[in-house]
Amino acid sequence: MSTQPKRSLQEWVHWFEIGEGSRWVRVAGLAAGVLLLSWFVGYKLFRGPLTEVTMAQAVVGRQVAEGHGFTTLVNHPQSFAWAQERISRGKFVNVRKPLPELHQPPLYSAVIAAAHRLLPARWFNGDTTLLALNIVLLWCVAMQSFFLAKNLFGEMGGVIALLGVMLSAPIWAATVAVNGAVLTMALWLALFQVTWSAETRVMKACDGSAQTLRRRITMSLWRPALTGMILGALFLSDYTTIIVAPLVAAVIWTKVSDWRVFRSLVLIAAAFIVVAGPWMIRNVSLTGNPVGFASQELALKAGDPTAEPATQRAMFTTDSPAIDFKKLGNKALTSLQRGAGERLWSGGGIFLAAFFVAGFAYRFRDARANRLRWFAVAVIASVALAQAFLSSGRASAMCGCA
């Protein structure tokens, strides 16, 4: 039986105002505000999936949840041409059943399938469930932003980062588009979290000398493995993010000069293969290409009548279109111009972008923050260039890197 005296009303008021309870009050108020904001913005802005790509990924997710594997009910003439070629080679393809998905990366569809299996059937309401799933992913992005900024700049910096995410019009536009862009954002932030963790361990474990830094940076084995897994997940959410893998390898190479660099690179490569290898092997066995028909995106450009992706999928052939380097350069310049001139500055993004750019003139006291900032800049620039050249532009995924 407890002998602790009960608190008086005045003690409770003091506990809520300046005691430990004040923290819980702030957290509860912030959580309530996030919930209300999510409901209000989702109710006002959500208009269902905006592109056929999103709907096709949702269909694949339902097929996976129902036990049919990565197949699709959205069949294009190109898919039937592929089936005909397989049959002509003596490989059986039952065209009366859903054909394999050969055009899209699988991760977002797998997440949709997981939500489909976890939720009771009566709760799964198509478009509304997709919106709820993307809002939950947005909350994960907000919390990751909070913890990363808190580690970098303190608790107040974390709160500002969280509010910046939840009040960002471009991020909300990507969320209500239910195209899986927030899933890519969460993976990018996870990569930055692992990078920060590695930098923190190095600073705590070594005495600051260059020799000790090189010796300690690869002591932990789980960080390279987790980095490879995140890179694999990024690849399965957007094929163009493979451009980051050489960048990560270059960062490790510059930090470590002895044989331990090879151990880290092997761990990253092995983890990447464990995550993305089965999907690439599956695509190679079906189409001869690790990314399937998505490789044709290089020669295609949405909005160009002579290189329209929908036109290519509507052709009864699996042959890749010829690459016109003039059109390729024009596509890249148009994508970069649109990204810098419209997406980066729209919906209040000008303030966050200006704040980020202005920070280049300031050197943080913490060297880890400086290194992480330049790593983020290199990642954003490389992914922007990769998407400008490799993507057809029919599905905007650059917001996942914002």
From TrEMBL:
Species of the source: Ereboglobus luteus
TM regions (residue ranges): 24-46, 130-149, 161-191, 229-254, 261-281, 344-362, 374-390
Protein name according to UniProt: Glycosyltransferase RgtA/B/C/D-like domain-containing protein
Domain of life: Bacteria
Keywords tagged on the record: Membrane, Transmembrane, Transmembrane helix
UniProt entry tagged with the keyword Magnesium: no
